[in-house]
């Protein structure tokens, strides 16, 4: 193959000496591609659609770390209403008696909207929590039941095993009953050892 015909918009291109260089046809234009993967070649040609702005074809394109989601629309509205309520309270303190009546109407409206949004948000959180509990139950019912029955552990034990056993023994054993069960000579030896 001495020559390669690529189309009406291109001339006949002679065969290249370097095997890694290949001519291709894109929208009627002849383009020579050298040592590129299809991805990097397409990235140079088209770009990333303005997503990153600074990346070029030879930089490593890696995924971003997932970040915590921002506040939802309702949560932002709740914050705005709380700020509006705070501002209304400050204005009410400085207002004349005639202005206080109008501010009271605005205050009631903000309070109703805030209560409505908080109720809806509480319902959403409860639904999400139930959904999560349901999936945990169906994933492993025995583990879920064990988790419900087991007491929650908290804190850290910073004493030795011997000290712990001695404390448990002193708290949960009846020394009078144990002394009555022991023969006299053993009980007297224990009494002597405690005195010394």
Short account of what is shown:
Residues 60-74 have a biased composition (Basic and acidic residues). With 196 residues, the chain is mainly α.
Radius of gyration equals: 39 Å
DSSP, total strands:
4
Assign an overall shape.
flat
- Uncertain regions: pLDDT < 50 for 5+ in a row? 1-5
Report the total helices. Answer: 7
Structural class: mainly alpha
**Strand order in the largest sheet:** 1-2
Which sheet architecture does the biggest sheet show? 2 strands, antiparallel
Mean pLDDT, nearest integer? 76
The proportion of residues in beta strands is 5-15%
Order of helices and strands: EEEEHHHHHHH
Whole-Å distance between the termini?
A: 109 Å
Helix amount: 55-70%
Region (Disordered): 52-74
Biased composition (Basic and acidic residues): 60-74
Overview of this protein structure:
This protein has 196 residues and is mainly alpha-helical. Among the domains are: 12-55, no CATH class; 73-144. 58% of the residues lie in helices and 8% in strands. The protein contains seven helices and four strands, in the order E-E-E-E-H-H-H-H-H-H-H. The chain has a two-stranded antiparallel sheet. A two-stranded antiparallel ribbon has the order 3-4. Strand 1 and strand 2 form a beta hairpin. The longest helix has 43 residues, at 97-139. The relative contact order is 0.04.
């Amino acid at each position: 193959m001495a020559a390669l015909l690529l189309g009406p918009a291109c001339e006949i291109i002679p065969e290249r000496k370097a095997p890694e260089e290949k001519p291709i046809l894109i929208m009627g234009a002849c383009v020579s591609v050298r040592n590129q993967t299809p991805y990097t070649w397409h990235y140079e040609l088209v770009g990333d659609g303005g997503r990153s702005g600074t990346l070029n074809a030879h930089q490593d394109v890696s995924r971003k770390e997932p970040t915590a989601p921002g506040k939802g629309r309702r949560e932002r509205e709740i914050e705005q209403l709380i700020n509006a309520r705070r501002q209304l309270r400050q204005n009410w303190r400085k207002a004349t008696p005639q202005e206080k009546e109008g501010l009271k109407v605005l205050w009631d409206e903000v309070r109703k909207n805030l209560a409505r949004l908080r109720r809806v948000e509480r319902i959403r959180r409860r639904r999400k929590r139930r959904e999560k509990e349901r999936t945990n139950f169906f994933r492993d019912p025995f583990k879920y039941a064990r988790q419900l029955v087991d007491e929650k552990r908290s804190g850290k034990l910073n004493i030795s095993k011997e000290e712990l056993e001695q404390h448990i023994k002193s708290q949960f054993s009846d020394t009078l009953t144990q002394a009555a069960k022991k023969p006299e000579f053993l009980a007297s030896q224990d009494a002597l050892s405690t005195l010394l």
